[in-house]
Amino acid sequence: MAVRRRGDAWQADFMVKGTRYRETFDNEVDAKKWEIDVKAALETGRPLPGKNNGRSESGHKIVTLGQLFEHVKKTHWKLKRSAETLIQSGKQCVDILGTSFEVKDFSRYQYDEIISHLSDEELSNATINRKLAAMSVMVRAAVEIGALGRAPKVPLLEEGIGRTRFITEEEEVKILGLMQKLAMDDVRAFTVFALDTGGRLSAMLGLGWGDFGPDLSTVTYWKDKKSPPRTLPLSERAKVELRAIKERYPDNPGPFRMFRSKNGQLRTHWDRVMSTLKLDDVVIHTLRHTCASRLVQRGVDLRRVQQWMGHRSIQTTLRYAHLAPSDLLGMAGVLEQHVRTEQVAA
């Protein structure tokens, strides 16, 4: 058998009818087994067995997202015509999640994190989808080399929409009602809190009870991307939900930490509710859009909305400006004042 040691790994390297088959493994047993399985698959016409050791072709173990990015850059993107764009998109996704993020923990939740971040950067849905596509290439590569068990579905955004999607009050009633009916108390509490604070997903999941004021009167987002710390007053219904969570999970260090340890649970329940209500275009980040939209619709000036949402640039907040048409009412009357003045003088 053409199995030999290569550094701290074992490599199976052999030819069948002029085609070379080569793979690297952690131990000699797996390398020999892979060679036997490949030859058997070729003889019977079955699919070839894939890698299952989490190593790149160079034999280096891939553990972190940074390592995966370097692997994909060399093996998938380097020789493509659009290499520069693909590498830039992939790097942007990696920077959002962190180069030290462990590949084995990648789930649908990480896609949500990327969408949340890029949405705040005022990127169009089409542009965000291109970034997600680059990330999906890395995810599939991770599965191929055994660094990730399976590839989660990519939540591509609908393109060509000219407005920011937000949840109407009627939709909110249906969403919260169904969550209550299905006994999704934790998801319902998270939804109410997100609607009434507009927090980013990662910031909300990272909250500890020490980030709340006396009697849960306020919440402070200390670390929310590059936004400065901000303290927000809490609505009465948000306080009710938080108190209930404290009773259900007295030992939890924060209200939504249960979703960090089971990062797929929130997404699974959310998708179930939205699918049942046929609101497939409503994603978790829509809760943040809804909060900003309601503030503007109810007459809060854009500067204060910017501070509440933690937008670094007023340009991000301006995407909601069209939701305040009442600000323009009466403007024609102001312009007509000089006409009335001239008529009185005459």
User: What is the rounded Rg?
Assistant: 26 Å
Average of per-residue pLDDT values: 83
Question: Roughly what percent helix?
Answer: 40-55%
Structural class: mainly alpha
Distance between the termini: 108 Å
Beta fraction? 5-15%
What is the name of the CATH topology of the largest domain?
hpI Integrase, Chain A
Query: What's the CATH first level of the largest domain?
Result: Mainly Alpha
Largest sheet entry: 3 strands, antiparallel
CATH superfamily of the largest domain: Intergrase catalytic core
What would the keywords be for this entry?
346 residues, mainly alpha, two-stranded antiparallel ribbon, 16 helices, 5 strands, 51% helix
SSE order and pairing:
Layout: E1 3-6, E2 9-16, E3 19-25, H1 28-44, H2 65-77, H3 83-97, H4 108-120, H5 125-144, H6 169-181, H7 185-197, H8 201-205, E4 218-221, E5 230-233, H9 236-248, H10 258-261, H11 263-276, H12 286-297, H13 302-309, H14 314-317, H15 331-335, H16 337-345
Antiparallel strand pairs: 1-2, 2-3, 4-5
GO molecular function: DNA binding
Protein name: Tyrosine-type recombinase/integrase
Keywords: DNA integration, DNA recombination
Could you explain how this protein is built, in words?
GO terms for molecular function: DNA binding. The protein is mainly alpha-helical and 346 residues long. It has helices spanning 28-44, 65-77, 83-97, 108-120, 125-144, 169-181, 185-197, 201-205, 236-248, 258-261, 263-276, 286-297, 302-309, 314-317, 331-335, 337-345, and strands at residues 3-6, 9-16, 19-25, 218-221, 230-233. Helix 7 (185-197) crosses helix 12.
